[in-house]
Specification:
The protein has 23 helices and 19 strands. With 664 residues, the chain is an alpha/beta fold. The longest helix is centred in the middle third of the chain and has 33 residues. It starts with a helix and ends in a 16-residue tail after the last helix. Keywords: Membrane, Transmembrane, Transmembrane helix.
Length: 664
Amino acid sequence: MDRTKRRRLAETALCVITAIIVCLSLSTWRPFRLAEARVFDFLATLSPPLMEAIAGGNGDIVVVAIDEPSFAEIGLQWPWPRNLHAELIAALRKAGVKAIGLDLVFAEPSSPVADQALAAALGPDVVLAADESLIETPHMSQLIRTEPMPEFVHAGARVGLASVSLDADNVLRRMPDAPDSFAAELLKAAGNDGPEEKPGAGVAGRLITPMGPSRTYPTVSYYQALDPASFLPPGALNGKVAIVGRSLQMAIPAETGGADSFATSFTASTGMLVPGVEIQATITDNLRYGLSLAWAGLPLIGSAVAVAALLAGAAAFRPAGLWTLGAGLSLVALILAISTASFFVLQVFLPPIAPSLAVAIVLAPLAARDITQERAMRRAVTRAFGHYLAPALVERLARDPSTLKLGGERRELTILFSDIRNFTTLAESMKDEPERLTQLINRLLTPLSKAVLDRGGTIDKFIGDCIMAFWNAPLDDPDHAVHAVEAGLAMLAAVEILNEELRAELGEAAPKLSVGVGINTGTCVVGNMGSATRFDYSVLGDAVNYASRLEGASKECRVPLLLGAATAAKIEARLGPLLVARISVKGRSGVSPVYTVVSPEPLEPATRERFDAAVEGLLVGAGPVDSAFAEPALDELYGVIAAREAHRHPSLVGTMPPPAAKAS
């Protein structure tokens, strides 16, 4: 394993270990636990149990509500006389109720007659509510339990603790931790022991599965239960467990609060509290049918966090990209799926926040590291190529550095060499003013470089007064030959503009600058060339050498722009290259045709063919043609070639037309 991979492995391992430690620490922090409890609320409300399904019928429990209609029908102030509750107990027994729970605390005596009537109606099928309250002072904490009056207990009634414990956010989620809870005693009174959970045994601290929002349970009004034969269908209460308590028909908003009303998992979605009598019904069903859930312990959560962190580390080991984001989201989705399955299938709440956070803790810093490194690479690419490539090409490389293959690759390129004519003479004339010579050369090389960059070329290097450039690397350029020739024409135009500027500045003393341009197309090797410590992005190949030779031969051919045959073939349909000469160069065998272009505008094929035929005649010593070409640029070029060929064929000197202009 190389050094880079070892370092990446160490960084990934550090992130994984950090994620495990942080997430396990957070799992014991109360605010974090409350956030996990919110996830429980969401899962609990996704698919609440159907009472018809769990009870095999219409449900075992019916709520007898002390509600607004009952207050209106009975017409008495609260608290109602206890002999009225005695009448209710008798009516419920007559209707076939198998157990009765009074979610009311009868701790203080009322009238003797009413108390005696209630005591006479009580029995082992009735459960009375007890209450516990914790009184805290700066010096002590005291738990006070409020029990029903002794005569009611002696009458045979059961007593169940109706108090519940709220989480830190005042939401009821936990089963009572008392073995003699109201729900447990009610199940005993009904003769029902839970098949999966014995009433009150081993459920302390488990999570309540809510049955639904307020008024989920079948509910009858208190006054209806006093006379079931008149107000209820026959057999409506037969075999039921009746729980009596206050339950207003108008649900109480959570923000206002209310006596004996509690926030549950459904409150976040409904905004309403659930009456205490329905809370007791929910706890009873949780006990009876084994619906409560266990909150996963720290060992299980720790295992989930460790597995999630390790999987995230494996995903982050390779450089970050869009796939890393996809892998992270997939891991989180998997964690949520496992948590949901554990909730509904195993009845274990495995909070997904800590494992999901572990994924984020691992992926975020590693992805940030990769993004930082990628941006640094982009800046390096921008710096490395900003002086050689057109800005648009630099931007493309920065967006996708993979388009730059380092180390060398074979490509078909078009190479351009441009050199200042008579530079030695110019330098000698300014030998006492080297600064002025430098300024002049820089002033010339600037527009020449711009001509290359504006047409997508890459400047390989400056060799004194010479520019070497190429096209079709590092980025693809299907029209590389056309762009190179257009750059060559732009160079010649830029020199003319600079000469005019110098003439305007210096008058007749201004130097007259000229350049020669050689362009060739061929297969080369392009990439980083040099040593292990210092290299340049450059090209090698015979096509490069030939382009350099063409630049030198342009002076001999008396044309400023000279193209190899391969380049001419590439641009034939676009620019119309013209035959100039057939030359042999040092290091190459045979004679090759060379071409030039006089304008970026294409020529008519017939005109070009006639010109090439005329030049062929000059090259073989057949003499010039008599007719002109009807284009000044072609006439001028033909005159230059004719004058040049007159020196090669002395017998034709008298037949050659005078050149239209001197070669630059």
